[in-house]
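Study this one:
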Amino acid sequence: MALARERRLPELVEQNDLHGLLHCHTDFSDGGNTLEEMAEATRKRGYHYFGVADHSRSAGYAGGLSIDEVQEQHALADELNASYRGKFRILKGIESDILQDGSLDYPDEVLASFDFVVASVHSRFRLDAKTQTVRIVRAVSNPFTTILGHLTGRMLLRRPGYEVDIEAILSACAEHGVAVEINANPHRLDLDWRWHGRALELGCMFSINPDAHSIDELDLTRWGVLMARKGGIPPERVLNSLDLKRITAFFDARHASRTRNRRRGQSAVKNGSRT
């Protein structure tokens, strides 16, 4: 109300600002539709990219992908992308489990093969607040992490979120350029809108994701948009408000940065071994 009286209401993100969907599942893990079916349904809804993010191998309960299955999915994505002729694209992602020590599923060479990585906690919910916070911050600081999935892990009417220092995690996301997910599934709606303003102040980007496990669930995105609007989020702070060209450039830049940093680290080790 105060912002309205002062005529300082921000421009808020709208459904039409979203150019694509990230964090969606297929029947490679626990989804109900094939990669092609999910991509086609996304394209027909007017989006320009579909970010597949099936579960990683540690998520055995959800059919997590083995390394061979990752390669199989990537080959299929390449085949389908060739048929789209640049007018639509499947982005190769993964929802990587955050392991107990804060590391990500898969070795680095596998993580490097994805366009983006959604890092999420799916186990050890009852760790104390300090341990859980350190675990998630370590995952956020991993150079392969692109998006932090459902930050608190809450399931509305089923379980509360983990005990964590949300501000410390948001600060880490801002520091490392990791987008904070607004999970649009009505059972999650996580990150809660009451934290959006603080996340904006800290400099966080967001990603409005349906976490869809079927074609119908692609439309859950609207609940995430409503949450983002309630939290005061403008379109320029939403990762998937970038068009296909810009989001591809964003992912390429992150990959190039990782490569440069790895080479510097290798060079430092070599130089140190000579002294």
Q: What stands out?
A: The mean pLDDT is 94.
